[in-house]
């Protein structure tokens, strides 16, 4: 049986006001068995894990109208991206553009040197412990933030 670890990543950067008027969420499923296999590998390599990102948008109508354009833009920063879907969260009274894709985990950080993807991970062993590091590409993050702001919020 595969053990899974589910992370909900809400980057600390958000609390600093990068997305002044919108929210970004990411959900990633990581298999412990696959992490162990990656660490045991003698070669530098990476593996992919399923991920979901959600960008808060100004409303359902705007989301449906512009989701193709936004999805195309955001997909440049995801691995194997899917089609964007508009999600209404009636409890929070918010609308999100949700996109499925994959994120990469590598066993050598040098493999991420020229990586443009929004989020990636590296794993390594230190002091007999398995460590997993989150890499948030700030250029990709700022680019998506600015694009979302321009396309969804400046029209209000």
From TrEMBL:
PROSITE patterns: PROKAR_LIPOPROTEIN
Origin: domain of life: Bacteria
Listed name of the protein: Lipoprotein
Species assigned in the record: Leptospira bouyouniensis
